[in-house]
Fold this sequence. Notes:
This protein is mainly alpha-helical. The chain has helices at 11-22, 30-38, 41-50, 52-56, 60-68, 73-78, 88-109, 115-125, 128-138, 148-151, 159-176, 179-197, 204-210, 212-224, 263-276, and strands spanning 229-235, 243-250, 253-260. It contains 15 helices and three strands.
Amino acid sequence: MTLNCANxxxxxxxLWKAVIKSAQDRDLSLSQVYGLMSQDPRFQFLxxxxxxxxxxxxxxxxxxxxxxxxxxxxxxxxxxxxNLQSYEKSEFLGDSVLQLMMTxxxxxxxxxxxxxxxxxxxxxxxxxxxxxKLSDTLxxxxxxxxxxxxSAHDLGSNKSIKADLFESFLGFYYSATSFEDTVKIFKxxxxxxxEITSSEFIDLKSLxxxxxxxxxxxLVLKNTKKLPVYKTExxxxxxxxxxFIVEVYEEDCFxxxxxxxxxxEAMKLAAKNALTNKExxxxxxx
Length: 286
């Protein structure tokens, strides 16, 4: 099943507004919230992909944990719904489950990697940026429940919240089923990621890009016996809008450039671009 998230509406805006509109004097029931969520197109997509309805109909506790796994603190603070918590506890559980799942998968998939390489590869796959991408393919942010106080903020583009929701969702699924079942749905999610992005989520390229400066340095040293050269230009120097533009070279050969509000970040991005841009001689093949 394919759902191109880029071509869908952001249903979360409709969802949280519908939930808040249904509240009378801050009084909102669990059944009201679940009823509105179950009508949402994103929920229906997840239901078809992961068979959520069957799991959620197996008891009130599963419904509470599911809604909790998608509830922002602002929603919990604004509405009094018995036993409902924010996603933070479920996220804590999901983080531990994810670490173990990823460890098992990596050991099985890359038996020739040593402990240090496996650790770096795992870190590159469970960081905020990577998990936000997985969360995006499921559209979890579109089911986020937030209160009026948070609705003015751009929660929908917050990578940290997206990553937290992914871990929280895994924590919910684990608490409702088992480790083995959670591994199965995680692999389904990875298959869906590949279907959406046409690329593997778990591959050695992630390891090479985990520390792009070091990897690029290894490649350039091997080729020229010299270090790559980073040249920096500063725009709006001395102001709050100061921007660093960094170009990276192999001797006199231009490889790539990048810009950021941080010089360190700009250098890292320039090295990453040298490894990912097809025009670069050090472009990593997929």
